[in-house]
Amino acid sequence: MPAEILRGAPVAAALSENIKRRIPALAERGVTPCLGMIRIGEREADLSYERSAAKRCEALGIAVRRVVLPAEATQEELLDVIGEMNRDAAVHGVLFFRPLPERMDARLVSDAIAPEKDVDGIGSAAMAAVYAGLEHGFFPCTAQAVIEMLRFYGLPICGKRAVVVGRSLVTGRPAALLLLREHATVTVCHTRTQDLAAIVREAELVVTATGCINTLTEEHLRPGQIVIDIGMTYDEKRGKLCGDVDHEAAERIVRCISAVPGGIGAVTSTILCSHVVEAAEAQSEGR
């Protein structure tokens, strides 16, 4: 029996209803929620996410302020733009696209975003809140999207053996911590994990966030698994966006798998919108 394909659109639609109910109260106070997006260069994955996020924001009544820097932009130029957005009271959330060029200090740049505007949860303050299980600040959008997708489709987390493939600070680690909050038993794998296939096969729930095509193939999978594919990489040979998983093989084996494209990205961008609205509410109320 072919796998169930988990699509992000219905999850995003359900989350959007809550957002729509909150916008009029802000409008009554003369506030239009606004997201500042900063992109460096023209990477296809960045462009895809930017289009998705901007379209979703605008459909919900959230303004978008885009700044595009050339691929050769310096760290100082990026910090200047972030500083301007931090100081602009009309901008409630700030987001830049990752990964940054290797010449830049990603931690320094991430921490330059004002915590109250860090709607993608990439700064140290937000990460500390996730680690400590606190409720203040914003969780990283993609990690939160994993939980929202599983909840929407009624897929169990509590007590399940989960494997997260990828340990980045922006996706893998936060996803693992949020799964722990939901009482899964979590193993985190990475490039130095020995016998990755055997470990992944043991999992009931698999989340992969490496950004590398075909990280998981037929040998990593078994029947009954739930697979959430966070990866999104542009495959030059095939001319399309692909995930971390060999979907053709996975769909013959696993219980269900998130679509790529059309899966976690739509949920992520909707959660981003929710965070912008929450930030606008807090800032307009002086919280």
What would you note in describing this structure?
It is built from ten helices and eleven strands. The protein has helices spanning 8-28, 44-60, 75-87, 106-112, 124-132, 141-152, 172-181, 196-202, 247-250, 264-284, and strands at residues 4-6, 34-40, 63-69, 93-96, 161-165, 185-189, 205-208, 226-229, 233-235, 240-242, 256-258. A hairpin with a 4-residue loop joins strand 9 (233-235) and strand 10 (240-242). The model has no long low-confidence stretch (mean pLDDT 93). The protein has two domains: 29-114, Rossmann fold, CATH 3.40.50; 141-265, NAD(P)-binding Rossmann-like Domain (Rossmann fold, 3-Layer(aba) Sandwich), CATH 3.40.50.720. 42% of the residues lie in helices and 17% in strands. The chain has 287 residues and is of the alpha/beta class.
> What is the top-level CATH class of the largest domain?
Alpha Beta
Annotated CATH homologous superfamily of the largest domain: NAD(P)-binding Rossmann-like Domain
Summed up, the helix count is 10
Q: Approximately how much beta-strand content do the residues carry?
A: 15-25%
Mean of residue pLDDT? 93
Shape: globular
Q: Which regions have little confidence, pLDDT < 50, spanning 5+ residues?
A: none
N-to-C series of helices and strands: EHEHEHEHHHEHEHEEEEHEH
What would you call the structural class? alpha/beta
Question: Which architecture of the largest domain does the CATH hierarchy give at level 2?
Answer: 3-Layer(aba) Sandwich
Helical content, roughly?
Answer: 40-55%
